[in-house]
Amino acid sequence: MAKKLNKDGLPEDVPTIIPDKGSDLFRDLNLGQDDESLRIPDDPPTRIAQGNMPPNAGSGLEPSTGEPLTKVIIRSGPSSKAHESLKTPNISSNLPSDPVVGWLVIIDGPGKGVSCQLGSGQNTVGRGMQARVRIDFGDDEISRDSQTIITYDPKHNKYYIQPGMGTNLTYLEGEPVLSPTPLSSGSKIVTGSTTLRFIAFCDEQFTWSD
Fold first, then answer.
1. 95, 109, 160, 201: least CB-packed within 10 angstroms?
2. Threshold 0.85, pTM exceeds
3. Which pLDDT value is given to residue 113?
């Protein structure tokens, strides 16, 4: 009686033997690793059959409790440019190049209540960006670059006011300023429709050279 053969040409009651890679039989048969057709595949990855999947799988719920899964979102840090913009600003860059010696305080007109700092040497007063003391609050009668000039002489610890390049006059205590004139603390200065009061910081009691 003929026996039924399997796909390897052997009787079905004769088991097909696949030699282990490390066995002598495997080496005797010259089943090298370079022969892709004869290479024994690795174990396939473990998969969960659809019928054996835990409850709530893929629903966004914890399988054991049915509670919503906790999502952990990891955000990357700011870029190097954004990080640079978050650095503490250099406070010293916002300070004046020389110490304050006095102030001009607007007591009437546009900008009333604003104080402007004066430094050593000549202080040009005007509306433009080039003015050392910028008074730009809507008074168009003030020249852009130098409506008037207030000077502090550190050597003699004295203040002066003189006309600038503007065509409009500046008045000190009601009198026009036509040439360098000594300036005392508390004096009123009128230029355009703006009235200022000069306040000296350096005086007989204190100077920065002390």
1. 95
2. no
3. 97
Dist CA 151 CA 145 (whole Å): 16
* Burial (CB count within 10 angstroms: exposed 0-12, middle 13-18, buried 19+), residue 50: exposed
| Tokens read off for 194 | 């703006």
Q: Residue 143 corresponds to which amino acid?
A: S
- Which two three-digit tokens encode residue 90? 């250099």
C-alpha distances in angstroms, 81 versus 86, 91, 93? 9, 20, 21
pLDDT score, position 88: 43
């200022």: which residue's tokens?
Answer: 196
What H or E segment, with its residue span, contains residue 25?
Answer: helix 24-28
Q: Identify the segments of the chain with pLDDT beneath 70.
A: 1-97
Q: Residue 98: its pLDDT value, please?
A: 80
Distance of alpha carbon 201 from alpha carbon 181, whole angstroms:
19
Q: What is the pLDDT of residue 97?
A: 65
> Using CA atoms, how far apart are residues 134 and 193, in angstroms rounded to an integer?
15
pLDDT at 41: 54
Q: Tokens in use for 94?
A: 């916002």
In the sheet with 133-134, reading across from the earlier edge strand, the strands are 133-134, 121-126, 148-153, 158-163, 181-182
Task: Return the residue matching tokens 């955000």.
Answer: 75
